[in-house]
Structures are given as C-alpha cells and as structure tokens.
Design a protein that fits this description.
The protein is mostly helical and 223 residues long. The chain has two domains: 122 residues, Methane Monooxygenase Hydroxylase, Chain G, domain 1 (Up-down Bundle); 59 residues, Ribosomal Protein L9, domain 1. It contains six helices and five strands. A three-stranded antiparallel β-sheet has the order 4-1-5. It has a two-stranded antiparallel sheet with strand order 2-3. A hairpin with a 5-residue loop joins strand 2 and strand 3. Helix 2 runs antiparallel to helix 3 and helix 3 packs parallel to helix 4. It is rod-shaped and about 130 Å long. 9% of the residues are buried.
Length: 223
C-alpha cells in the first residue's frame, strides 16, 4: 500500500543503539530514507489533524506527536553523525592503503557518493603533500652538492697562511727595553708587560713606536 510506514520511533531508537554499540557500519534497508520520510510525514499529518480538531484530547495527542517528532529528529541526527564518522574512517583507510578490500556494502546510495568524494579528496591531498615533501628534499640536497664542488677552497686558504704571517711580522717591531716598564694597555686594548731592563719583545708597531719615542726601548735588528 502506498504510504505504508515501515519505520517506527522504536525501530529508529534500536537502529541508533546498534550503531552506537558496533564499530562497523551497520546495514540498513535500501528504502530506509524513504521509509523515514514517510514516517515523519505521517506524524506531521497526525499532528495537523489533531490541531484542527481543537479538543483537549486532541491537544494532548498533538503535544505527544510533536514531542516524538522532535526526539525522532535528534535520533536521526545522531545516527548520521555516527555513520558519517565511520564513513570517514573507511575513506581514510582506502586513501592510506589503496586497498580494494574495504567493505562498503553497508553504505546507502547517497553514502557511497560521500565515500567516493572523501577518498578522492584525501588521495589528492596526500599526493600534494608527497610532492611538496619531495620538492623540499630535493632543494635541501642541492647545497650539499655545491659544498662538495667547492671543497678545494680550504687548500687555497692554507696556501695563503704564510702570507698572513708575513704581513703580521711587518706590523710588529722587535724592541729591547732600556729601563723597567710596568704593565700597560695598548691602543688595541691588549695588556703588555711588565718588562724589565734588557727584556726583548715583539710588539705591534704603534705600541713599539710609543716606547721608542719615549726612549724606553730601542729596536733590535732582526737577521
């Protein structure tokens, strides 16, 4: 008979209870959504009819029916929340493992579309992530190759070291102290001394020049 109701408040409550207590997605009848639609429509028709009668008895029936409709909507909302979470887990497993043995037989027709869309989105996101990481890894290894190609540079630096030492020697003067000199601070903020008479020291040119000008030291000719 057209309009026959195959769903009741009690059956919906039981379906939700099973969905809560089971990890796997439970199988529903192919006509589940149509049956729920017919059930809700019938309840609304009853409520409307009782309102039209406008009697004390009909008012109680109307209140009960409306309350049952509200509770039914809550049950359906929680039911689909739980089913959607399970569908998301199925899609995640499919995108991660690329397995063809994911069981989707319990999906309703509209849930199959949701599942397929989720798998495509997750696979696309995973592919983009892998490409990004590969690009980062590739760019990270390039400087290493450049370092390997420029490794001869330290040898060039080592060859130049004697030149640095020669330059350093030209900026210092060997002096012999003509009288004791207490410790002092040079213009380079380094501490020098104390020195005793006849002590010899290789001092920076500016420091040595001050001592020579004050006749506290004399230059020592280096062979």
């Amino acid at each position: 008979m057209q309009g026959e109701v195959n769903i009741t408040y009690e059956t919906l409550f039981e379906i939700l209870r099973r969905e809560k207590n089971r990890e796997e997605l439970q199988t529903l009848t192919k006509t589940f959504l149509e049956d729920v639609k017919n059930y809700l429509q019938t309840k609304k028709n009853v409520a409307t009819k009782n309102q039209e009668q406008n009697t004390l008895f009909s008012k109680d029936d109307t209140d009960n029916t409306l309350k049952q409709l509200t509770n039914t909507n809550k049950i359906l909302s929680e039911l689909y929340d739980r089913r959607e979470r399970k569908i998301m887990i199925l899609a995640l497993n499919k995108a991660k493992t690329q397995s063809n043995i994911v069981n989707t037989t319990a999906l309703l027709e509209h849930e199959k579309t949701l599942y397929a869309d989720m798998v495509r989105l997750l696979e696309s996101n995973r592919t983009q992530l892998e490409q990004t990481l590969n690009n980062v890894n590739t760019s990270t290894t390039q400087p290493v190759t450049q370092v390997e190609q420029t490794t001869p540079e330290p040898t060039s630096t080592m060859i130049q070291e004697p030149q640095v030492e020669k330059t350093s020697q030209l900026t210092t003067i060997m002096v012999r102290f003509l009288q004791p000199v207490p410790q002092f601070v040079g213009e380079d903020l380094e501490n020098y001394g104390p020195f005793e008479e006849d002590d010899m020291a290789n001092l920076p040119r500016d420091v040595a020049n001050v001592l020579l000008t004050k006749e506290r030291a004399e230059t020592v000719e280096q062979k």
